[in-house]
Amino acid sequence: MAIQGPGLKREGVVLLQSLAISFVTLVESWLRGGVGFVTGSVICTALYGGIRFGRKGTIYVSVVTPPLAFAVSVLFSIAVLDGFKLSRVGIDFIASLASAAPFLIISALYGWFIYFNTKAKSRPAG
Fold first, then answer.
1. 83 vs 91: CA distance, rounded Å
2. I need a surface site. Which of 11, 15, 65, 79 has the fewest CB within 10 A?
3. If pLDDT is split at 50, 70 and 90, which confidence band does 101 have?
4. What's this model's pTM, rounded to 2 decimal places?
5. What is the CA 47 to chain-centroid distance, rounded?
């Protein structure tokens, strides 16, 4: 599928990845009481979408945004759904990170591989 136009700017990549991850994290936390496969698959999809639909030079932003957006959205959803009890927020935050860890690791490895591979290809040979 060919993209019409140059693709998303850095701001567009950050906005779309953040909104997708935040929405799914909040909904899954509300429905299941925690995050899991659905949020993890959206993290991987958001990374791939950012790399695929971003302009040239947006790969770094596409790789860095999903883990940060996930962490912020988990903290926000925990605060909204459970309140501001510090011990509860800390435990739920660590549990959410552990639940999504395989997806975060896989997407980070793939994203950084693409980033460094693109960097290596853009260097002049010699």
1. 13
2. 11
3. very high
4. 0.89
5. 6
